[in-house]
Design goal:
heterodimer; A: 149 residues; mainly alpha; Helicase, Ruva Protein, domain 3; elongated; B: 181 residues; alpha/beta; Glutaredoxin; 2 domains; five-stranded mixed β-sheet
Chain lengths: 149, 181
């Protein structure tokens, strides 16, 4: 019986270590820090898979970078400083939210400019169209008076 | 201009736009991200040599002459494609080629080099991958060209091919020599 219990405990311990490996545990100070970490890493791109965030990626480099970010947090670095650290090495591409600067002006304001340009075209066309329509209705009214039906 | 032509003009514009998009998507490498480190000082490093781990190679040791750093690993599939190219070209670059063994067991790298040949003037190892983060490495193989002042002048991500060497790397090396003359 004792031996069976021992086997069970060992099996549970092995299982626990498996799950621990799967979630890549980091010794956070408290829940708030863990939340901050998850929020920050979900805004950063994994350079290896590129369609995954650092938070979600299982790539080796993502693991290394998560540890690096964790260490920087422990040493009191701000989110902005950590982002700056990564941008200096991997370019703006690591940020899912592109910063506003000359090279990204088109990205930020392009869609709004397109909608604006489209709206102007529509308004101009509509204005142009109202005049001939007025004429048509005028002639139609004139026709109606002289017509039998 | 005839107002009736406006829709056709818009249509033609869209065709051109989508056409450019298709061609661009076929020809550019989505994984390629220009390194922000080009034109900046290479990060300082202090890494053990593969053959003699007690000896370290530091960035300061290499100042004064240009060199190439090639990030490779025995586990890296694309490095196997690149390796014969390095074997053929290493002595033609005119600058030393330093191997950077990335997150590899030293025994694996030694075995890999003795099996496939060693194109490197020297090999340094980064088992933890910490210095590689400073270099912005995210996909081995990667190749950096560093000038005599220790500034990164060129970077290639992915395997070097004879075409890339002829089109990009050799002109970049030639440019370094021009400046120094």
């Amino acid at each position: 019986m004792k031996r069976a219990l021992l086997v069970l405990v060992c099996a549970l311990a092995v299982l626990a270590s498996f799950t621990a490996f799967a979630i890549d545990p980091l010794p956070f100070k408290d829940a708030a820090q863990r939340e901050r970490f998850q929020h920050l890493t979900s805004q950063l791109r994994c350079m290896v898979c590129q369609n995954e965030s650092l938070d979600a990626s299982n790539a080796d480099l993502a693991k290394d970078l998560r540890h690096q970010i964790f260490d920087m947090m422990q040493s009191g670095k701000s989110d902005a400083q950590i982002k700056q650290y990564l941008v200096a090495r991997y370019s703006d591409f690591v940020l899912y939210d592109p910063p506003l600067k000359p090279a990204t002006l088109l990205l930020w304001f392009g869609p709004a400019a397109l909608v604006l340009a489209g709206g102007i075209v529509v308004i101009v066309l509509l204005r142009r169209r109202t005049k001939p329509t007025a004429q048509i209705t005028a002639t139609a009214a004139a026709d109606a008076t002289g017509d039998d039906w | 201009m005839n107002a009736r032509l406006i829709p056709f003009a818009v249509f033609a514009l869209l065709v051109v736009l989508f056409g450019v998009g298709i061609v661009w998507n076929e020809h550019h490498d989505a994984r390629y991200v220009p390194s922000p480190l080009i034109g900046k000082a290479a990060p300082a490093f202090d890494l053990p040599r593969l053959e003699t781990p007690s000896q370290h190679l530091r960035k300061a040791d290499l100042l004064g002459k240009p060199y190439l750093i090639n990030v490779f690993a025995s586990w890296c599939f694309a490095c196997g494609d690149e390796h014969p190219v390095l074997m053929a070209y290493a002595h033609r670059f005119g600058v030393p080629l330093i191997g950077y063994d990335y997150k590899d067991a030293p025994g694996d790298a030694t075995a890999w080099l003795s099996q496939h040949g060693n194109p490197y003037a020297m090999v340094i190892t980064d088992k933890q991958g910490q210095t590689a983060i400073d270099f912005g490495v995210y996909g081995a193989p990667e190749t950096f060209l560093v000038d005599r002042q220790g500034v990164i002048r060129y970077k290639h991500i992915g395997p070097l091919t004879p075409e890339v060497i002829a089109r990009e790397l050799q002109p970049a090396i030639a440019k370094l020599n021009e400046v120094s003359r």
